[in-house]
Amino acid sequence: MSANPQLKPFSFSEKAMLQMKDILSRYDSKRSALLPVLHLAQDEFGYVSDEVIEYVARIMDLSPAQVLEVVTFYTMYNKKPVGKNHFQFCVTLSCWMFGSHQLMKSACSRLGIREGETTADGQFTVSKMECLGSCGSAPVVQINETYYENLNPEKLNRLITSCKEGEPLIP
């Protein structure tokens, strides 16, 4: 990654900058605060692009490679834009055995996209995830930051409908 002088420099809003300072105050080193600062950056910019990685590296006194290794290790950071409703299906053993792979195929079919794609209107993205840590209530889908457990085709259809109507169900 090399900085492109043609690109408009990224900068946190005043509110996000205050949040970052608060985050940094809770850690002994900037590097220790990298995960929550990356969450803040993703919230602020929508996803963690190469330009955002360079910006975070600069303000955290880290190399872009150090930030990139964290972004690519954790699945919670999006390297490309995702839809307003990001359906993340757990495909690890427990969820798979209870049909998460079929539920994901069903969601893709209903939305007219493939896994990893976003609908043309930017409303939905469907992704597969490794272990969401809810094996006892499999299958599970995470929509944005909310878990929906013990999923079945009927519940999935209600979730998609509620998201299309702008009112995602509360679990």
Features:
171 residues, Arc Repressor Mutant, subunit A, Glutaredoxin, 2 domains, 7 helices, elongated, disordered N terminus
CATH class of the largest domain: Alpha Beta
| Element order: H for helix, E for strand | HHHHEHHEEEH
**SS strand fraction:** 5-15%
Main beta-sheet strand count, sense and barrel state:
4 strands, mixed
State the helicity in percent bands: 40-55%
Number of domains: 2
The number of helical segments is: 7
Could you give the order of strands across the largest sheet? 2-1-3-4
List unreliable stretches of 5+ residues: 1-7
User: What is CATH's topology name of the largest domain?
Assistant: Glutaredoxin
Derived from helix and strand composition plus strand pairing, the structural class reads alpha+beta
Terminal CA distance = 41 Å
Overall outline: elongated
CATH architecture of the largest domain: 3-Layer(aba) Sandwich
Q: What is the rounded Rg?
A: 18 Å
Q: Give the number of DSSP strands.
A: 4
Mean pLDDT: 92
CATH superfamily of the largest domain: Glutaredoxin
